[in-house]
Target: TolC family protein
Amino acid sequence: MQKGKIYRSLALACMLSALGACRLPALATRTENKNVPVAYSSPQDTSNTAHISWKDYFADPYLSALIDTALSRNQELNITLQEIEIARNEVRARKGEYLPFVGLQAGAGMDKVARYTNIGAMEANAEIKPGKEMPEPLGDFALAARASWEVDIWHKLRNAKKAAVNRYLASVEGRNFVVTNLVAEVADNYYELLVLDNELDIVLKNIDVLNNALRIVKLEKEAAKVTELAVRKFEAEVLRTQSLQYGIQQQITETENRINFLLGRYPQHIQRSSVSFGDIVPKAVSAGIPSQLLTNRPDIRRAEQELAAAKLDVKVAKARFYPSLGISAAVGYRAFNPTYLVDPASLLYSLAGDLMAPLVNRNAIKATYYTANAKQVQAVYNYERTILNGYVEVANQLSRISNLARTYDMRSQQVQALTRSIDISTDLFRSARADYMEVLMTQRDALEARFELIETKKQQLNAMVSIYKALGGGWNR
Model:
């Protein structure tokens, strides 16, 4: 009768726990929006430059060699690889949590019971047959296998393992995102180096032209056609142009060192193409359709995996409101003398189960539940923001490529016109029909125009790199 009351009390307690768990706190939820525009600015076909390997996209063999070295030696990338390993181990740990824990236990001890205690008094008053007394002090030796297992009724542990898997996949996508950025950064700096080489070449040629002009002005002064002021002006212009040479040389050194840093090595000379920078033609780009960003861009894929993990975290936190069932078991031998451990009479075994549910003071569980939900909503916004950012980056680069192509054509014509103006101004100066200041200003304008033309070409190549990165190219070899 007493046992029946106990069972009914336990059943009632479990029912109350389950009912309490059913009254879950209300949450403000949000569902992610994956919709993107059908096209960018005009209808596009499905061919996408992101599907091209970086080895094919960047045809320069020197640049390909640099990228290949960076992908094997860059420290940031290698740090990311260790983060992937950490995430993989987390999956293993989560998987082990919903499997039974089995361990082997061996123990030895000694116990001397005090005479004037309840146990000591009972032993003294017990009628023990001669030769059957327990030894004093009393030994305790055990050898047993023990197992414990939390039955995953509500898939709390399985969902935690799935969340760990999603975070592992997110770390893989994080590595891919690092690769994409690394490829783009090496390419940008390589093209920057080619630009500086070209600018240095232009400055050196311009110094030669100015020195020739200076010799002419000196001859004109000797013929009393110009004053000392003209000579000093030309000398100042030569010195100004020579100062540009050393500034460019410093930029070359810094750019080479920046590339070496990306390659994970100490400063050394960077081999590069000797092809004229003006002859480099940016690759034609196919942007495909915006929906392809969801599968091409590693940062969007990473945000998607992080969102999936956050959703599972909410389920794990929710399961903590429900009763948990634990099972424990043990089998082995125990005796007060080691020689009795092999005796069948020393065999012990146990099997127990317990059902536990939170009933009073569930604030900690509620806080975890609210936090998991807030992180899920946060992950939704981050996912939507990443998609939006990807679309905007592609749209901006497409517009940039188009406008830079027109700008380059205009500046090419400007350079051609100013180059002709140099010869004209020099001839007019020799015939005393032009002032020396006109010659100087024409030289300066032509130099600046050439620099602007090179800068525009660099921007075109940077846009070619940026659109490849924005579309999600570079991580898939």
Summary: The two ends are 74 Å apart (CA to CA). The first strand starts at residue 101 and ends at 111. Residues 102-151+323-356 form a domain with the Outer membrane efflux proteins (OEP) fold (CATH 2.20.200.10). The CA atoms of residues 80 and 175 lie 6 Å apart.
